[in-house]
Design brief:
- Helices cover 42% and strands 14% of the residues.
- It is elongated and about 70 Å long.
- It has an 8-stranded mixed sheet with strand order 1-8-7-2-6-3-5-4, sandwiched between helices.
- It starts with a strand and ends with a strand.
- α2 crosses α3, α6 crosses α7 and α11 packs parallel to α12.
- The protein is built from 13 helices and 8 strands.
């Protein structure tokens, strides 16, 4: 039997202000350019006159909307997200752009189960695997990494798909050095890791140069890299190539000891999932759950 399925609809949507979470609503709105100093005086006058909260008074004057209030509150409670107007990242990163959506609640459910069942001092790495291409694995890895970082976990997302990497595109990073370069001895591991400033606790190790020998690179060097990284991060999620592309995903899952299966509704065949589950079981990797995407 495969583990329970979790259904997530991959829909999308978006500006982040980095500030002290003790800042007032007025300071946040001023810093975001939503109101001017003159506007603030008008808001305070209405606030005092009617005994209103600052945000409600600003909204009553037509200066801001509910989204502006929600964003300011998110910064005060140390939960930043991106506004619809911000286009730094790919809109597939629904956890960044629609943090209160039904899809992201499903992601949080996955996160909660993983925190209970897997991530601890003994387990810090987890592979995301799928039988075939186009099943939403890279999308799931990126969004799951974001929700872990929002929890305050020091999170590293590794793009170990050295065949068709996507994470640098999703996070709008220039292609450059990455995992393959580190494994080939052409770059330093720490230098290759990119911080994602919009999310305080999120880092990305991109795939780097697409090599001619991905299986060999993964086989001979990834284990040592993961041992180094486990001292620096609480959660390490690894995006892998689909099983139809080669053995890479199975090797990575065996090094992690556990994996999440990503399947696409009305596309992935149950038989393919069963075969992949058996192949990973033979390497000693546990299948923690199956996430069924619908997009």
């Amino acid at each position: 039997m495969l583990p329970a399925e979790i259904v997530i609809n991959n829909k999308m949507i978006s500006k982040i202000i980095k500030t002290d979470n003790t800042a007032s609503m007025g300071d946040l709105l001023l810093g975001a350019g939503k109101i001017s100093a003159g506007d603030a005086e008008r808001i305070i006058a209405l606030q005092k006159q009617n005994g209103m909260r600052f945000g409600d008074a600003a909204k009553a004057l037509g200066l801001i909307n509910d989204d502006d209030i929600q964003k300011a509150l998110s910064y005060q409670f140390d939960f930043p997200f991106l506004a619809a107007s911000e286009e730094n990242f790919n809109k597939e990163l629904v956890a960044a752009y629609q943090p209160f959506s039904e899809q992201v609640e499903a992601l949080r459910a996955v996160r909660g189960q993983l925190m209970l069942r897997w991530f601890s001092d003994a387990h810090k790495t987890l592979a995301l695997v799928s039988p075939c291409r186009g099943e939403g694995r890279s999308n799931m890895a990126a969004n799951l990494a974001i929700v872990f970082s929002q929890l305050g976990e020091r999170t590293l997302l590794i793009d170990a798909d050295l065949r068709s990497p996507r994470q640098h595109t999703l996070f709008n990073l220039q292609s450059g050095i990455g995992l393959s370069d580190v494994l080939a001895g052409r770059a330093d591991l720490i230098t290759a890791i990119k911080r994602i400033p919009a999310f305080r606790d999120l880092s990305l190790l991109p795939a780097g140069t697409v090599p001619p020998n991905p299986v060999e690179l993964i086989s001979r060097g990834l284990k040592n890299c993961l041992q180094q990284l486990q001292a620096e991060f609480d959660v390490i999620l690894i995006d892998t190539p689909s099983a139809e592309q080669g053995m890479d995903g199975q090797i990575i899952a065996s090094l992690c000891g556990g994996s999440i299966f990503v399947a696409r509704q009305h596309k992935t065949r149950l038989n393919d999932l069963q075969h992949l589950k058996q192949a990973l079981h033979d390497t000693g990797s546990l299948c923690l759950c199956v996430v069924l995407t619908d997009f």
